[in-house]
Amino acid sequence: MATRADPIGTQLWSQIERFCAELRRRGLDIAVTEVLDAAQGVAQIDIGSRAELHAALRCTLVKRPHHGPIFDEVFDRLFPSRPAPRAERRADALGGAGAEPVVPLGEATEPDDFASGELDLAAARDQDLRFLADELVERHGGFDQTARTEKYHVYRVLRAADLAALMAAALSNAADGDEPIDRRELDRRLETLRRLIVESVRSHMADIAPDDGLAGGRVADPFDIALAEATSAQLDDMRVAIRPLARKLAARLRHRRQSQRRGRLDMRATTRRSLSSGGVPLSPAYRRPKSHKPDVTVLCDVSGSVADMAGFTLTLISALADELSRTRLYAFVDAVDDITDLIAGSEFAIEPWQLLQHGKVIGADGHSDYGTVLHNFWERYGRTRLSTRSTVIIVGDARGNYRPDRAEVLAEMASRVRAVYWLNPEPRAQWNTTDSVQSTYATYCAGVYEVRTINQLTHAVEDIL
């Protein structure tokens, strides 16, 4: 651990330790070795530079993209940017005492003009945006009242700043001028201003309540978010991360298969070995269980609210192909189709619209019909492709729109294969309500799992395989 002779200093080291402890409380997995790596990184930078300190800590402590916002929030609270007093900042913006006045923010000559809509966003520099952010937070943050949550103070400032009006004014000024304007640069400056406002609010909150300003819940792991409640941005993040997750799962399965328990004692082999030691069994021999790769067939409902889970399940199983002896993938709504080649040709996670567009999964009316699908799947594919070594995984909510469930087909299938498992993306409390016949199908399944999140899906697949 650090000592008083450390180049980063005792006070800074103490703050870094507190910083890491708060990140752990918020859900980040930070080992002691990573804290030491952070200390080594900080020792190599200019500790007077807040940007370098941020970069050094972030690159050593953050391992997942969705932990970034939590890291930034805690960093801004514990290592706040301390804005200079208003008079000093104003003098600096005007070029210093006795200097020729330089007005970097449009035509504004007094701080009050910043709220009047005269700021030229296209002409502003990054240091000007920080000056503006501090002014807006001081004037409109509401810190003269009782301090509330960060969102409350940020909302007050953004409402007063009216960023949309700033953007519209910048575009209007550019249209009246001779030089073309880069819209991407304007977007960057607007986003920089928004970020600086948040940073300034956090600095003020750290000044007001340095000990209580870190209140906050644990960061939400996107793989623990129910897919039915996830936003489009969260679903996109999951699609990017599902294949790396599958590689980790494949590594765990491979390790387990290669390190199976030694099995029962082999008396004959043990007796033969003991001859070299005068009949003393110094080296027992065991019957090692024969390792085999599963033969997996997946049948997924791709209709309605279960479509996203079906896409993730198909992608996950496809990515595990090297750890399986054979994989066949099927999708259905009220018709069933073999989509193994379609999934194999997809570099990233398969999306529901691709299954509906490229697969022949819609039959008579496009409403789920589990009874018809099970019968057609068994007659077209199951009788010839499934064997006693096959593991069948069915993904769906078991809602057949009050049509015949044809459970006898599933019963025959279960008697001809190694095992049938059912993954249901609905909450368990909703099973067997209205048109759900989950309990009927569960009779012939070796296991039924609730899989509303990616983590639940991963644990179910790992348990099955």
Key attributes of the depicted protein:
465 residues, six-stranded mixed sheet, two-stranded antiparallel sheet, 49% helix, 8% strand, flat, disordered N terminus
Question: How would you portray this structure in words?
Answer:
With 465 residues, the protein is α/β, with parallel strands linked by helices. It has a 6-stranded mixed beta sheet, with helices on both faces. A two-stranded antiparallel ribbon has the order 1-2. The chain has helices spanning 10-25, 32-42, 50-61, 68-78, 86-93, 126-140, 150-161, 163-176, 183-208, 232-258, 267-274, 307-319, 340-344, 352-358, 370-385, 407-416, 438-442, 454-464; strands at 264-265, 286-287, 295-301, 326-332, 336-338, 390-395, 419-424, 447-450. Residues 1-5 and 84-117 have low confidence and may be disordered. It is 49% helix and 8% strand. Helix 2 runs antiparallel to helix 3 and helix 15 packs parallel to helix 16.
* Order of H and E elements: HHHHHHHHHHEHEEHEEHHHEHEHEH
User: Which percent bin holds the helix content?
Assistant: 40-55%
| Widest sheet: strand ordering | 5-4-3-6-7-8
**Class derived from helix and strand content:** alpha/beta
Bin the strand percentage.
Answer: 5-15%
Overall shape: flat
Largest beta sheet, briefly? 6 strands, mixed
Number of helices: 18
Q: Would you tell me the overall average pLDDT? A: 78
Taking pLDDT < 50 over at least 5 consecutive residues as the criterion, the unreliable ranges are 1-5, 84-117
Number of strands: 8
Distance between the termini: 43 Å
Radius of gyration: 31 Å
